[in-house]
Amino acid sequence: MKVLVTGSAGFLGRHLVAALDGHDVSTVDIVHGANALDVFRLSDRRFDLVLHAAAVQPHRSAIDTSPVIVGAGCLELDAALFGWAARTKPGRIVYFSSSAAYPIALQRPGLNVRLTERHIDLTVPEQPDAIYGWVKLLGEQLAEAYRKQGGAVTVVRPFSGYGEDQGERFPFGAFQGRAQRQEDPFTIWGDGTQVRDWIHVDDLVGATLTAAREGVDGPVNLCTGIGTSMTELAELFAKEAGYSPTFDYKADAPAGVAYRVGDPTGMLEFYQPRVSLAEGVRRALGAP
Prior knowledge:
The protein has 10 helices and 13 strands. The chain is an alpha/beta fold. The strands form 3 sheets. Strands 2-1-3-4-6-10 form a 6-stranded parallel β-sheet, with helices on both faces. Strands 5, 7, 9, 11 and 13 form a 5-stranded mixed β-sheet that branches. The chain has a two-stranded parallel ribbon with strand order 8-12. Helix 1 (about 10-20) links the parallel strand 1 and strand 2.
């Protein structure tokens, strides 16, 4: 199978590439001097599967502090993808949307709504999370239009993906680093009550490739349905690291919405998550 992975040096991209060992995989990442935009503008090569993981800084700090850079960069990549696909007709595309596409009105304090795929109506979309959320809604609309013209595309909505090699721009990676250094106080952005649905990258990759193989169009949530607050995650890390720090909350730091947990019913029809959050923390602190 001929596969193209964009953003192949990024967190999700490199795990996708590793899982595709044995296939004819072409990788594209600006970190290695290859721009996905150039592929989409210039190449007519046809692939059996395209995994579009390229993005511009899709993490909380950049989404909040550099919305134009993130929004414009991701929009340009996604638009170029579908223009190229309309020309070359790959076997199937996987479009990584985001849980940021869900209405923020459903993620306010006290509501505790488990987000289902039907909470997004692309014909009358509600306010998502920042410009990045709007970009993902537009990407889903492009995917739907591409599908109506005969293209095969799987749309997935990942929730809070994590893993031991994620890096400290993301909450899990930041907490991993603080625990490994046994920082005290242990810094948490926001008030610590923000709840997220954490799904290990092995399960993100497993669910994605299963959906693509089985021809699942989606959109489908990639999530566990289990909510864990930032303070609870910090406590897990501290306990696993064997110390009891005080927590230093940064109320003025980017914190995102209050409660973002998905309904995994659609995903569970074809994939069962294997890595619990507790196991993920153990793996992270055991990583070299």
